[in-house]
Amino acid sequence: MALLASRSIFHMNHPSANWQTRFIQLATDAAGDDGAHDINHLHRVWHTAVTLLADYPEADALVVQAACYLHDLVNLPKNDPQRHLASRQAAELACRELGAMHFPADKLPALAHAIEAHSFSAAITPTTIEARIVQDADRLDALGAVGLARLFYIAGRMGSELAHPDDALGTQRELDDKRYALDHIAVKLATLPASMQTEAGRRLGQERLEWLYEFRGTFLQEWDGR
Amino acid sequence: MALLASRSIFHMNHPSANWQTRFIQLATDAAGDDGAHDINHLHRVWHTAVTLLADYPEADALVVQAACYLHDLVNLPKNDPQRHLASRQAAELACRELGAMHFPADKLPALAHAIEAHSFSAAITPTTIEARIVQDADRLDALGAVGLARLFYIAGRMGSELAHPDDALGTQRELDDKRYALDHIAVKLATLPASMQTEAGRRLGQERLEWLYEFRGTFLQEWDGR
Questions:
Q1: In b/e form, how buried is each residue of A36-64, taking b as 16+ CB within 10 angstroms?
Q2: Which ipTM was obtained for this model?
C-alpha cells in the first residue's frame, strides 16, 4: 500500500518519497503491538487521504502525508482517561522530531493542527483543508469491514463483552461502548458520516456505515438465536 | 438467550431447569474476562445444540446441555502450547464438580467424552451423538457474524496483526493465523463445515462460511485500497 500511495501522489503536488520513508520510520519506531493502530492503519489513512486530496489541489500534500503517518505517534487506549490529550502530545512530538530533521519550519503549525484535530476525543474543529482531510481519512478507517475488524480487535484488548446479553441494540438501557463492543456502532460510528469535512469523505463514510448496519443485522440474528 | 433456550427444550426430552442453573453457576464461577468465551458463548452453543437436537430425539439432552455449558471450564489461549490438553482438563473438572452435586453417575462418561471431543486442537473424533452435537454447536459459533467478531476480538487479545500488509489472502506466502487474524478464515474456519457431524450443522456451517467469504471480499477491497 505504501508503494501504491506513493505512485498515486506523483500525479499531484507530490511530497518526496524521501520524506515518506522518514515518516514511516518515525511511526514504526513509536509503534507498540496494537494491530488496530499499526503501520498498516497509517498506510490506509494516507492512501484514503490521497483519494480525498484529488478534490483539493490547493491542499499541502506534504503536510497531509506527515500528519497521516504521525497522528498516532502518541496513542493511548480508548479507555485511558488521558486519551483526549494524546493528539496534542503526538503533535508536539511530531514537530520536535521533524524539526530536528529540517522539515520546512513554515509547515509545522499546519502539521500540528492537523494532528491535534484528527482526534475524536480531543473534539477540536479542523480549520484547514489539510486537517479536514486527515480527520476524514482517519475516521473512514473506523468504518466498513476494516473498521469492524478494528472495533472487535480493540474490544478484545480492552476486555469488553461482544454485546449486551439480552438487549444487544440497547433499546431498553443506556448504551455503553466500553462494556459492549457492539454499542460502539451506535455510540460513535453512526455519528461519523455527518462529521465528515469533505464531500467524498461523507459519501464514503455513509457507504461504510450502511455496510456496518448490514453486519449488525446478521450479528443480531445469530446473537438472539432467531 | 438462557430463557429462550430453556423454553425451547421443554418441547423435547427436557433436562430440568434446575440443572441448567447449576451448569451456568459453575461456568460463571470459572469465567475470566474473555468476551469470546463468556457465558453468552455458552448460551449460544446450547441454543444451537437445541436446534440440532431436534433431529436426534434419541440423544441425551441433559448430557448435551451439561457439555455445552461446561466445555470451556478450562480454557487456554489459542497460542498456549498446552491448549490441546484443555478439553481433557475441562472434562475432568466437570465430572468432579457434577459428581459432587450427585449428577447421574451413569451419564458422566458420555459427558466427559462430549467435552473432550469438542475441542478442535484436541483432535478427538466424537463417537456419540451427544458429542457430535456439542462439537457442531461449538464450531458453528466460530462462523458467521458472531464468529467474525470473536475472531478479531481474540486477535486483539493475542496482539496479532489484522492481516498481512501486502498479501492478505496469503497467495505468495505460508498462512499464519497466530500472526495475521484474517488468515484464520482460510487456516481453520474454511475447514469447519466439512468437519460437521450433523446434517443441520453442515448446512448452517456452510451458510456462515459463505457469509465470512463475503466479509473477506469487502475487507480486502478496503485493505488494498481498491
A1: bbbbbbbbbbbbbbbbbbeebeebbbbbb
A2: 0.90
